[in-house]
Write a structure and sequence with these properties.
The protein is of the alpha+beta class and 114 residues long. The protein is built from 2 helices and 5 strands. α1 packs parallel to α2.
Length: 114
């Protein structure tokens, strides 16, 4: 399979649009079967992209989440809340099939460079 035709992020003025992220580890594999662990990996990957731009998780103001299956919402939400702490970006969460069968969550984010 060819790699997807996308950029990890694009900047438009002060906005940084991050492509949807899956829970890939350094070897390019989905890291864990569980939603809590995949969520933590994805958010860590997003934080890594932002760090290269001199930004952090507190620069994220909007996230869109695709979750499979819906019964995982509680575990996902707990992992998400642990990562963000007091920072609460706007968020949409939908239930959906994902491009890779091992993935149970995908997250895209929009960050703002103040």
């Amino acid at each position: 399979m060819k790699p997807p035709h996308l950029s990890a992020f694009q900047e438009a003025g002060p906005f940084i649009y991050l492509s949807g992220q899956l829970a890939f580890n350094a070897a390019g594999e989905i890291c864990h079967p569980g939603v809590a662990e995949q969520t933590a990996q994805i958010l860590s990957n997003i934080e890594g992209v932002l760090a290269k731009l001199g930004l952090s998780r507190t620069n994220i103001f909007k996230a869109t989440v695709w979750l499979k299956p819906g019964s995982d919402f509680g575990a996902f939400n707990d992992s998400y809340a642990t990562f963000f702490g007091e920072h609460r970006p706007a968020r949409s969460t939908v239930y959906s099939e994902l491009a890779l069968s091992a993935a149970v969550v995908e997250i895209e984010a929009i960050a703002y460079r103040a």
